[in-house]
Amino acid sequence: MPFLDTVLQTPAYGWKDAAGNLVRPGAGAILREFFSRLNIWADRRNWLPLMSWMKVFCMMPFLFLFVFRYFSFWTLLAAFLYSMVIMGTHGTIWHHRYCTHGAYTFSNKFWRFFTQNLTVSMIPEEIYVISHHVHHAKSDQPGDPYNAKAGFLYCFLADVNHQPIAKNLSETDYYRVKALMKHTGVKANTFKQYQKWGSYANPTRAVLAWALNWSFWYCAFYLAGGHALACCLFGAAGFWAVGVRTFNYEGHGKGKNVQVEGNDFNTGDNSVNQIWPGIVAGEWHNNHHLYPKSARSGFKPYQVDLAWYYIRIMNRLGAVSSYKDFKKQFYARYHVPYQEKKSH
């Protein structure tokens, strides 16, 4: 079978039925799958999705302290900017455009490490990257790990239920996973270690990286504004980590075709350009599905793209050595012909 058909761990309810139609499991089936895949006592290879959600739960005390002890207009503003803009834009810069699509390259490993750790770490690269390749190959089709047509909960819990890599990959297919991940700087398990841990990432290194990242940023926030600012921004990071799990459901029209002519030119799936994710995180999603490897997805003048601005600034500073930009192709192939057709 094709690699992208088998690289992800199939949920108990499957991707499609005998007739090839999308399986739309009920809430009970989704929740049973979710908790079974977090159970490291049943299978230690469940460690990575458990760690991903442990990060979210570890943020809850910080969020409570922010709301009930340190709440003010200024901390609320800081939380808003950090969760909505900084964390969102960083997710686009790092996980989306670099780790998954290789839309740009760094001039050396330092700048890659710098960009990777530019914010509080919340999402494991492995869970995001491999599944996102499948998402583009099967967008809104059976096998899409966060298929909006299967409902909100299907998308919201996808990082556990649908996105981890399969635990029974052949050595050849595991090396294909490594090829998709090697540029990220996340050190790979050997095939023997993969068979033991069920992942590309090693748990010891992953937990150490988590501890170092959080320690650095808590100290930095504390020095800048005491416990009030540190709790505020850590709580905001946790809030973002929950919110981002809702994005693909919204970004694909909640499973319906709500595309607007002249705004959404990619009609091969239900992806849509949305003002809010576009402005705060550079996520013009329909444009991105047109040109996944573009370092810029805000093609039109009003389509603010903070992620693109970061990449361009880093390029001018010499930190980014090259990038791909498909703005000219977008205008030549889609926007200009549409305007000409409209004028007639």
TrEMBL record:
Domain Fatty acid desaturase: 74-298
UniProt record similarity statement: Belongs to the fatty acid desaturase type 2 family.
InterPro entries hit by this protein: Acyl-CoA_DS (IPR015876), FA_desaturase_dom (IPR005804)
Record-linked Pfam families: FA_desaturase
Primary residence: membrane
Organism for this UniProt entry: Dyadobacter subterraneus
Lipid bilayer topology: Multi-pass membrane protein
Residues passing through the membrane, by range: 47-67, 73-94, 215-242
Name under which the protein is recorded: Fatty acid desaturase
